[in-house]
Amino acid sequence: MFNITKKSIQWGQETLSLETGRVARQADGSVIATLGETSVMANVTYARAQKPGQDFFPLTVHYQERYYAAGKVPGGFFKREARPSEKETLTSRLIDRPIRPLFVEGFKNEVLVICTVLSHDLVNEPDMVAMIAASAALTISGVPFMGPIAACRVGFVEGEYVLNPECDDMHKLRENPEQRLDLVVAGTKDAVMMVESEAYELTEAEMLGAVKFAHDACQPVLDLIIDFAEVCAKEPFDFTPPDYTAILARVKTLGEDQMRAAFGIRDKQQRVTAISAARDAIMSQLTEDESSDPTLGTAMKKLEASILRGGIINGEPRIDGRDTKTVRPIVSETSVLPRTHGSSLFTRGETQSLCIATLGTGDDEQFIDALTGTSKQNFLLHYNFPPYSVGEVGRFGPPGRREIGHGKLAWRALQAVLPAATDFPYTIRIVSEITESNGSSSMATVCGGSLSMMDAGVPLKAPVAGVAMGLILEDDGRFAVLTDILGDEDHLGDMDFKVAGTENGITSLQMDIKVSGITVEIMEQALAQAKEGRLHILGEMSKALAAPSGFSQYAPKIETMQVPTDKIREVIGSGGKVIREIVEVSGAKVDINDDGVIKIASNDQEAIKKAYDMIYSIVAEPEVGKIYTGTVVKIVDFGAFVNFFGKRDGLVHVSQIANKRLNHPSDALKEGQEVKVKLLGFDDRGKVRLAMKMIDQETGEEIAESAE
User: Fold this and answer.
1) What is the pLDDT of residues 663-678, one digit of tens each?
2) pLDDT for residue 705 is more than 70
3) CATH assignment, 5-232
4) Are 23 and 30 in contact (CB under 8 A)?
5) Which residues does 658 contact at the CB level (< 8 Å), separation at least 6?
6) Average pLDDT of the segment spanning 434-462
7) Where are the domains of the chain?
8) Cα angle 47-49-50, degrees, rounded to a multiple of 5
9) Over the stretch 61-92, which tens digit does the pLDDT of each residue have?
10) Over the stretch 352-398, which tens digit does the pLDDT of each residue have?
């Protein structure tokens, strides 16, 4: 019934296997990839014809985690997987980015890739397995795909690169100082296609070494996919790329001069208007048959690309007049909003980010439900890209894949310099509003986010800046690396290479390319240029703020205290009764974790002190010989009971009330009276013994001559 093909290799510490023919036999390509005991199923389907009038390549990648894979039931009210989590969205993008450039040029049939996590051993990350499964499924499906690709994850511990580190090693890197890198690389046999990383101030040489290490580690996987495909690949889809040479020549004849003049305009808005007018002028001169040519859109884009790229590769200035290494003019401002905890406006040319930092308490931490378990996150970064930022009308709604991806990139770049939670017990949220965009708004978010946190008084280890690098790569091997790319240079160029970091090293790196791979030489030059650009931007940022400023009066104040773990129950009380009382009486927020760390938060310092004292009185033990202020709660014949330390009572014997004989304690004391008492000790039965007679009741000082 089944025609099963299975191939395996030893890869690092685990066995990697690919299997097809058992499940999803109606898909064009179906592969289950397994590493250790982590299994991901990738299914590929594609349309046999292009939709009429479609001028783009409709590739969709979905990565989905099923909770059964880790033997869990999903959290939430509905108890089923619903909209994609942030991790699923990011992994979908991760898989999409290296495979998209490898489809044959001109292929515009719809392609759907669905990766489903079937099993997770909590050791091997499923995202890399999913990418390998998707690559294998595409390779055997018959779709015109110039792969395969392979991918792996690299860690960096004590100067050594680690292949596919375990999930636990990659979780919360900020709290694991030994592990300095989480790098994902995807590539073909000859070239690197995609890089994504979170790093802790690695040098350019260390980063490049990690990329080379990853690319070498991918080679046996590529060999495995090729061996696998030789046995079970389907017949290639009969596709002939459309020939657009004739229509391109016609378009050039009609409007090349006008288009070239339009690209010569320095101002973005004016340039966009002039390019649109040049397009309209070309369209108005075309015949009816030429206007309906399905390759017209491609030809028009090729004309625009040839004008923009040709000038740069021949050493001419870029469309805004810069050379290849110059960063656009930068203006950095802080404290731009009056009531926020920290704010900044970072402008680089025609790209602008308004960043706001908000400091919250432990209550504001985000719970993250994942296959590996539920965790809490105290650093959040949200990126918004409204249509007005590019002068357009368009979709406005919840964040899309792009916004989630750009936000995560900036998050990775910044979280490497955050203080430890023990030193700075706040939840930090940054929101980046992109108010203008013309190239690399994610890197503007890194710069603006860094400034807004310093404005809020967050003690960052160092400021962080980011810069986007571009590439023009010609067929004859000539290339130009561009610093701080414009929007046009991004979508008409061959690479988007984003590097963020401090003065000392790289904290995040992301590379996407549109060609079939780049060499180490190009990457080395891009990293060197990016360092120059990054240091320049850091210098410009320091003009606004060089170090963290004072705390906002509107931010909550937080004080931490450590209590013994066996006292936690006493602080919480039965059904939370004690902690509720502390919160109500003091007016402060109180958060207790399982380790006995208590965070007390309020805008009012008095409220914090009140809560602190109340908790202290519960958990602390009274000290013999120390003087306390107490209240008389009960008078009996032989003395008075005084509440002196939280809820602790002790007895002041009638002989210890005053330096004179009393007939009855009520001669000197009454219930509710505030008194100063000294703790003498504990009797044989553990009862507390107190004394008053050697204490000056006015000052609370011990009277030396009366001391016993």
Assistant:
1) 888 888 888 888 888 8
2) no
3) 3.30.230.70
4) yes
5) 668, 692, 693
6) 94
7) 5-232, 245-313, 330-542, 557-619, 627-706
8) 100
9) 999 999 999 999 988 888 888 889 999 999 99
10) 999 999 999 888 889 988 898 888 899 999 999 999 998 888 888 88
DSSP state at residue 144: -
Tokens 């004690």 appear where? Answer: 578
pLDDT tens-digit profile of 156-197?
998 899 999 999 888 888 888 888 999 999 999 988 999 999
Bigger pLDDT: 340 or 654? 340
Would you tell me which CATH number, out of the four given (3.40.50.720, 3.40.50.300, 3.40.50.620, 3.30.1370.10), belongs to the domain 557-619? Answer: 3.30.1370.10
CB 30 within 8 A of CB 42: yes
Residue 386 CB: number of other CB atoms within 10 A? Answer: 14
Residue 237: burial class (beta carbons within 10 Å; 0-12, 13-18, 19+): middle
Give me the chain's average pLDDT, please. 90
Our measurement of the distance from residue 12's CA atom to the centroid of its chain's CA atoms, rounded to an integer in Å, reads 28
Tokens of 409: 């990139």
- Domain 627-706: CATH class, spelled out: mainly beta
Q: How far apart are CA 210 and CA 155, in angstroms?
A: 8
Q: How long a stretch of residues is the chain?
A: 708
Neighbouring C-beta atoms of residue 263, cutoff 10 Å: 18
Q: What angle do CA 237, 239, 241 make, to 5 degrees?
A: 155
Per CATH, the number for 330-542 is 3.30.230.70
DSSP bridge partners of 85:
none
Q: Quick one: DSSP state of residue 179?
A: B
Sequence-separated (6 or more) residues with CB below 8 Å from residue 577: none
Q: If you ran DSSP here, which 8-state letter would residue 189 be given?
A: S
Question: How many CB atoms sit inside 10 A of residue 497's CB?
Answer: 25
CATH number given to 245-313 = 1.10.10
Q: What is the dihedral of CA 416, 418, 421, 427, to 10 degrees?
A: -110
Residue in 261, 285, 292, 295 with CA at minimum distance from that of residue 275: 261
The rounded Cα 212 to chain-centroid distance in angstroms is: 25
What span, in angstroms and rounded, lies between the C-alpha atoms of 6 and 10?
14
CA–CA separation, 80 vs 62, rounded Å? 17
Q: What is the largest CA-CA distance in the chain?
A: 122
What six digits make up the tokens of 176?
Answer: 């694991």
**Backbone torsions φ then ψ of 639, nearest 5 degrees:** 160, -160
